[in-house]
Structure formats: C-alpha cells, structure tokens
Design brief:
60% of the residues lie in helices and 0% in strands. By secondary structure, it is mostly helical. The protein has one domain: Globins (Globin-like, Orthogonal Bundle).
Length: 135
C-alpha cells in the first residue's frame, strides 16, 4: 500500500508546500494574525521544520517528529497555544492557497484538505489569548 505522502509527490513536494505556507504567513498582511501563534516559542524557522516533520509522519512517511519529540499528539503539541475558530479558518485558507501556489490538485489533495480541516477544527480552544505589546 502506497503512503499518502507519496500520493502527494513525496518529501520534496511536502517540503515545498510547507515552505510556501510559511512564506505566505510571513508575507501576507491578511494572515499576520497567525503570527501571534508563533511569537512565543522558537519562531517560524523552527516551526517550518517541525511542521514538515509532523506532516511527513502524519501522511504516512518517515516519523521525523516522533523521532525527535517522542509523540505526535496534535492536541498536546498545541495545548498551550490560543487557537480561535478564526485562526483555524485563516490557517486552512492559507494552507489551501499554498496548495494552489504549488499546483497541487486532485483526489489526494482533496483528501488532505478534508483531513487537515478535521484536525485543525479540533484544535480550537479557550486558552487565554497572547497579544504582543506594540511599541
């Protein structure tokens, strides 16, 4: 049985997709609010790598994230992060645009969108929001 990551084009394609997603997050003023989810912690460069590693294992490829951190519990990973429904929708929309930018289409991409939508929606929470002081 073929791994889902292979249906998308393998690790190289996934790496390009994740990088495009974070390039959009860094450059699109409409999704700048997503940055507040990364202001604390290790920043976007760390998150780019962790996202690739997580998605690789999540999609049936090598379990890089599990190898480094010992688990892949999505809720545990995000338990400290304030994620509102608006953030979920913004994240999914940005990921969708990255898929389009990378010209990824077809049944595998539709399946990925559905899977990510379910996963992202379960992360919305009531953790007190982070706001970065301006000035």
């Amino acid at each position: 049985m073929r791994a889902f990551i292979d249906e998308l084009g393998g690790e190289e394609v996934l790496h390009q997709l994740v990088n495009r997603f974070y390039d959009r997050m860094e450059s699109d003023p409409e999704v700048h609010e997503l940055h507040r989810l990364h202001f604390r912690g290790h920043g976007l460069n760390h998150t780019r790598q962790a996202q690739f590693e997580f998605l690789c294992g999540f999609l049936g490829g090598r379990q890089y994230y599990r190898e480094r951190f010992g688990h892949m519990n999505l809720r545990e990973i995000h338990a400290h992060v304030p994620i509102r429904q608006n953030d979920v929708e913004m994240w999914l929309d940005t990921f969708d645009k990255a898929l389009e930018d990378c010209a990824l289409r077809g049944a595998a991409v539709d399946k990925l969108r559905a899977t990510l939508t379910r996963a992202a929606n379960m992360l919305a929470n009531d953790v007190p929001d982070w706001r970065v002081a301006s000035g």
